[in-house]
Amino acid sequence: MSLQEALPDSALHSTASSVPIEHRFNPYSDNGGTILGIAGKDFAVLAGDTRNTTGYSINSRYEPKVFHVGDNVVVSANGFAADGNVLVKRLGQQIQWYHYNHNKELKLSSCARLVQHMLYGKRFFPYYVHTILAGLDEDGKGAIYSFDPVGSYEREQCRAGGAAASLIMPFLDNQVNFKNQMDPATNGTEPHPITYLSLEEVLQLVKDAFSSATERHIQVGDGLEILIVTKDGVRTEYSPLKRD
Amino acid sequence: MFRNSYDNDSVTYSPTGRLFQVEYALEAIKQGSAAIGLVSKTHAVLVALKRNSEELGSYQKKLIRVDDHLGVALAGLAPDARVLTNFLRTQAMSSKLVYNRPIPVSRAVSSIADKAQANTQEYGKRPYGVGLLVVGYDATGPHLYEFLPSGSSLEYVATSIGARSQAARTYLEKNFDNFGSSTLDELIVHGITALRDTLAQDKELNSKNTSIAVVGIDTKFQLYDDDDVVPWLSKLDTLSRASGAIPTEESTEAEQPETTETTETTETAETTEAADASEAAPAADDSMDTTE
Amino acid sequence: MEQRPVNWGRPRDDIYGAYDHNIHNAAKMPTVHTQQPIVTGTSVIAVKFDKGVMMAADNLASYGSLARFTDQERLIPVGKDTVVGVSGDISDLQYVERLLEQLEIEENYDNDGHELKSSNIFEYLSRVFYQRRSKMDPLWNAVIVAGVEDGKPFLSYVDLLGVTYSSPTLATGFGAYLAVPLLRQVVDKEGDEDNLTEEDARKLIDKCMKVLFYRDARSIDKYSVATITSEGAKLEKNVKCVEMNWRFAEDIKGYGRTVA
């Protein structure tokens, strides 16, 4: 017996006839992928997978989404890829104009405020992205700023964004900010003290986070691109992820 | 006293077909200190003489970056140059945004030449009081253009604008055969040698008054000022002056540049008017502190 | 004679009664935007090979499920080393065609030795598509730009949302499900194209177009193939699917002779 035969006639037609189906252009889509930023003592990293998707399709296995926009600032806007790219491009040009007008580098904190205004400027037709900014602050310490789609933001030690954010963030809470960890030196009676991780530890953490997210999330995989910011500049590391 | 009745606006022709306001604007360029541009097969170079209005004052900027592949040198009203370069910057950025391509140098120049031309044809407008040397490197190689308030733009192998620039041009005309195959360093030395010829007898080039900019193949537009120009200044041939690196018997000719220019402008029938215009020029020297 | 212009061309009051001025004062038609594609073209597929890029699209323009026009060219050459392949709404395709023609003409005005590279054309198109989607008035297409630039193959995608990506294999529409897996068997990651010759790429394209004709109900067995190398773009028209075999159809219940 087919589905049509099994259902009473009314079940198929009642909703269709009484409520008109709204059919209108949807200007957004979800291009998957995930990003992750961690700040260290004198460095910051911002990593993103290189897979680009719509629905169940893999559009591209290598489509970078973390960019150096000048002045030792790296940024990624994850979510709807068209909005993300436009935001990053506009930010890069804004930084150029800052140079023309003021003849100096843009501070990371000022860059963060600029991003807030760019996002809030489209409050009623938002950029559908989770934005993360990484770089060094005025004291040379690593800094991560994260934004919601309409511009509210805060500085953090680490943040995951995009499709697998909910998979990675709890892992980060535990491994970067030592949440729910007790100090072994006190025989487990005191909370683990907050300490900076070394760059090597952070890179390993990032790779573990992404390979785990790749296992559990269909929109994550193919490749991992990590941008590392130190006082000497920005460098990029690429490593493969599973492609299934 | 004679009064020119055809120079009240920039849109009225004189009976002999001249636009006096435009010619006055061209005079404003000559008030500014000299700027020189030259190109080889791989690079383009700008050099310029900076002035300070008083001993304790700072030196005015003569070279401005527009994009990684594009920059200008100015002679004349600095504020006008700032407006034009800001416009060039928007054009350069929109080329990047819309076509993902560094703006071709020729098109960048046409875009400001069109603006300048409009000022010579629209009532109530004032022609720009500045000349620019635009250098850049694009898909068709290195380029040097001269932009003038009249709206004309011409490409050059080497040229100069500003005060006593004829002296520099004399040097460039004698040596341009070597520019094409020059290395970047040689090109810069040619540039500052030509620049030295624009100086008054008692002046010398130094790290304070010399600006150098380069752009070219695999070389983003780069400005050099102060101590950074010393390596090139030290390469200047200390012996020859006004004649440049190549010793020549005609060296005295270059030291009388103003005479040559005045003869050019007075060639037409309206001798009196032209003399009037060029006489007024030196008087303005101190009052116009925006002229660089 | 009626002296007041406002009453000209209106029904006479003495015959039809007083004129309802609400008709005259009615608001103008609202601005209308494309809400759905009308006449459409199906998939465009493309793959990089060692010396260039190859792209194909069939010649059908469908009106819903009706095969309305059977000789619609959907591969548009721009300049001498770029081809733009368009799927989706055909009227928007023709608009894009005019935009690109205008772009090329204006690029040549100056005759200064500059020419638009594939990436320049692609960037321009993606700006147009993103701007139209942001006005909630999209161009209803998915477009692939293929070309050769500085001796290297170029291949990128943009659609009605302004979403862009590039990959050594690309396909729009059904091609993303049916052709891409076949293409990726040969060229999966960047660099794999170095091991694919033009000849093999051509066979691969034919294979994909045949599978698309078998399975995509909005396709036709006549298509164009564009091959772009550093020597320029070559457009092969009226290519037919050959060595097709429909024997399997007989075994499909309700389609061929098999009834029960």
Walkthrough of the structure:
The complex is a heterotrimer of chains A (244), B (292) and C (260). Chain A is of the alpha+beta class and 244 residues long. Chain A has a single domain (34-241), classed as Aminohydrolase, N-terminal nucleophile (Ntn) domain (Glutamine Phosphoribosylpyrophosphate, subunit 1, domain 1, 4-Layer Sandwich). Chain A has six helices and twelve strands. The longest helix of chain A is centred in the middle third of the chain and has 22 residues, at 81-102. Chain B is an alpha+beta fold and 292 residues long. Chain B has eight helices and ten strands. Chain B has a five-stranded antiparallel β-sheet with strand order 8-1-2-9-10. In chain B, strands 3-4-5-6-7 form a five-stranded antiparallel β-sheet. In chain C, the strands form two sheets. In chain C, strands 1, 4, 5, 6, 7, 8, 9 and 10 form an eight-stranded antiparallel β-sheet that branches. Chain C has a five-stranded antiparallel β-sheet with strand order 11-2-3-12-13, with helices on one face. Helix content of chain C is 29%, strand content 29%. Chain C has one domain (39-239): Aminohydrolase, N-terminal nucleophile (Ntn) domain (Glutamine Phosphoribosylpyrophosphate, subunit 1, domain 1), CATH 3.60.20.10. The chains are: A alpha+beta (244), B alpha+beta (292), C alpha+beta (260).
